[in-house]
Write a structure and sequence with these properties.
Length: about 140
């Protein structure tokens, strides 16, 4: 299990994510997934209480991110990876696989989190755009 040291910026990011109605995750400065909010559970395919924290290699391998044309993407090609590695905001669209095995098309916005000049994590907001493989729009959950 991931053991992220306490950090005020990450604590605030997690608290902020808890208030958002959009799927949101927080990764620490090592890239480990430390939190995702209830709206993210549908896309991720499980509840946070069942998953808890995931090391960077585990979540990248598990979610199997691909370009929209099916090319596997490395961490440095993903919005969260760009924010983590380059320390700048990034946005993109990917195909990912939830822990429930369902493929989804997702738009992702990743914002680097800093404490002074040190990058301490990334706040990731995302939303499903279409179901895959038949590319039909997802039903409105309301």
């Amino acid at each position: 299990m991931v053991s992220t040291p306490p950090n005020a910026v990450l604590d605030v990011a997690v608290q902020f994510a808890k208030t958002l109605g959009m799927p949101t995750t927080v990764i620490d400065g090592a890239g480990d997934l430390i939190y995702f909010n209830p709206p993210a559970e549908r896309t991720i395919g499980r509840a946070f209480a069942d998953v808890r924290e995931l090391p960077i290699g585990t979540w990248v391998d598990t979610f199997g991110p691909e370009s929209l044309d099916g090319k596997p993407l490395a961490l440095h090609e993903l919005s969260p990876g760009i924010a983590l590695i380059e320390g700048r905001p990034a946005q993109g669209s990917v195909r990912m696989y939830g822990l429930d095995g369902v493929a989804r098309l997702v738009d992702v916005t990743a914002l680097p989190l800093f404490e002074d000049v040190d990058l301490v994590g990334v706040l990731i907001v995302f939303w499903e755009t279409m179901a895959d493989p038949d590319m039909t729009p997802l039903p409105d959950p309301t």
